[in-house]
Amino acid sequence: MKTTPEHDERMAKMTFASVFPHYVTKVEKKGRTKEELHEVIHWLCGFDDSEIQKLIASKVTFEAFFQQASLNPNANLIKGLICGYRVEELENPLTQKVRYLDKLVDELAKGKKMEKILRKA
């Protein structure tokens, strides 16, 4: 699935710090916790709690965020629609990784069991 170059550029330049509070609000509104959100981020990217805080404090872009990440080898098992895009069909690798994270946060907020969110091969 194609995105526009402008869309991909906007995703790359967006800061993790600007989006993280929205993730927290979204999951907490649905009865989930910030700790569960951190668990999801850790599974996808390999960052622990202190690393997440450092990334927020240093206002890294999503481009830098995913350059520093150790993407889970099972990330390609993340499938489905998010923000009108089918994540498994996105052609831009960075945009796909950002949407992977969005999809996992969405599943957490929708009450999906953690075992299902943290995919196993």
TrEMBL record:
<dbReference type="InterPro" id="IPR014580">
    <property type="entry name" value="UCP033199"/>
</dbReference>
<protein>
    <submittedName>
        <fullName>DUF2200 domain-containing protein</fullName>
    </submittedName>
</protein>
<dbReference type="InterPro" id="IPR023204">
    <property type="entry name" value="SP1917_dom_sf"/>
</dbReference>
<dbReference type="Pfam" id="PF09966">
    <property type="entry name" value="DUF2200"/>
</dbReference>
